Amino acid sequence: MNALEHQLDYPFADTLPEPGLAFEVAPGVKWLRMPLPFVLDHINLWLLRDEIDGQQGWTVVDCGITDDTIKARWEQVFETQLEGLPVLRVLVTHCHPDHIGLAHWICAGGEKKRWDVRLWTTLGEYMSACVLSSGNGSNAGGEGAARHFARHGVSDEASLEQLRKRRNYYSNLVPSLPGQYRRLREADTVAIGGRDWRVVTGYGHSPEHCALLCESLGVLISGDMVLPRISTNVSVFDMEPEGNPLGLYLESLGRYEAMAEDTLVLPSHGKPFRGVRTRIGQLRAHHDARLAEVMEACAHTPQSAADIVPLMFKRALDMHQLTFAMGEALAHLHLLWFAGKLKRTIDDKGVVRFSV
C-alpha cells in the first residue's frame, strides 16, 4: 500500500472475491472480480439485487472483455451465485472493452441463452462502442492511430507498424453489441431493488461515463472515474485529435466532491474504499504536479507528446501501455494549450511540438 492509499479506508482490508464467486459489500450489492490479460490484470463487476415489472432477479453492472475464461466464470456465477434468479438488465458504465465487451453475451443469457434482456448505458458510450466495434474508428490501433502518434513524435517504424497491426484491437475484445439499448442521462434515477440509484455522468476518460450513486445505501459505483490506487487514464486519441479530455475530466470530478466522505466507493479496479473527497484531492494534486512538469519541460525546449512520455512514465512500456501513455501526455499538453499557456508549432517533418 502506497502513502496515498494510507489516507483511504479499505473496509474489507485485503479480501477479494474468489474466482466465479460473489462477495456482498452492501445489502443487495455483490462484488465479482474477473481477470484481464493486461498489466492491469483485473476488473471489478457488480451484481445488484433487483425487481423489474414484478420479476425478481439481478442487474449486472459491467461485463469484462469477450474471453473464454471470463465466460466460464460468468457461467459459474449464473449457476451458483444468482439464487436461482435471472439477470434482468445489464448496465454498462462506459464503452471500454473490459466494461462492455461481453454485454451482448450476458444480455442474451450466456451459453445457455437463459434470458434476453436490455443493455442500459448512455448515448455517448453506446454510439462510441458501435463505431469502434464496427472497425470505423481506431484510437488504440490501426493506420489512423499510427499517423496520430507519428504526428506527435513517435518515429520508430517498428512501433508504428505494431500500432498498424492493432487495427482490430477493439473489435476482437468487443466483437458484437446488443442492437438495442436503454438510454441513461445525467441525474436520471434508476430504481434497482427498491432503492434509487442516481446517474452521475463524467467526461474525459470516455465519452459519457455513467457512475451510479445510491444515497440510501451510501454506495457509489464509480466505474473508472474514481480509482483508489491508480489515476484514471485520460487520453487524446486520433478520433478526436484536438480534444481536451483532461479539462473535461477535472471538471467532472467536481460532481463527486459533494458526496459524503464515508460513501463506500466501488471502483472498477482496485479495492472498495471510503474517502471519496480525499481521493479526489489526491487526483487533482497528481495532475497539478504533472502539468507543472510539462510546463517546465516546454519552457526549456519545444516538446512533442513522445518527448513528454518518459517524463511522466519512468518505466518500460509495452505497446498497449504506450498508446495510453502517449494519449495521456498529449492530454496534459492540450490542457495547457487550450488554457493559452502553451503554443503549438509543426516542424518540417510534420511533428507537433509545444512551447511556452
In short:
With 356 residues, this protein is of the alpha/beta class. It has helices at 68-80, 97-100, 103-107, 123-134, 143-151, 157-165, 169-173, 245-252, 276-300, 305-312, 319-338, and strands at 23-26, 29-35, 42-52, 55-61, 87-91, 118-122, 181-184, 189-192, 195-202, 209-214, 219-223, 264-267, 273-274, 343-346, 352-355. It has a single domain (5-286), classed as Ribonuclease Z/Hydroxyacylglutathione hydrolase-like (Metallo-beta-lactamase, Chain A, 4-Layer Sandwich), CATH 3.60.15.10.
Report on the structure:
- The structure is a single chain.
- The chain has 356 residues and is of the alpha/beta class.
- It has a single domain (5-286), classed as Metallo-beta-lactamase, Chain A (4-Layer Sandwich), CATH 3.60.15.
- The protein is 33% helix and 22% strand.
- It has 11 helices and 15 strands.
- The protein has helices at 68-80, 97-100, 103-107, 123-134, 143-151, 157-165, 169-173, 245-252, 276-300, 305-312, 319-338, and strands spanning 23-26, 29-35, 42-52, 55-61, 87-91, 118-122, 181-184, 189-192, 195-202, 209-214, 219-223, 264-267, 273-274, 343-346, 352-355.
- Strands 1-2-3-4-5-6-7 form a 7-stranded mixed β-sheet.
- Strand 11, helix 8 and strand 12 form a beta-alpha-beta unit.
- The radius of gyration is 21 Å and the shape is globular.
- The model has no long low-confidence stretch (mean pLDDT 96).
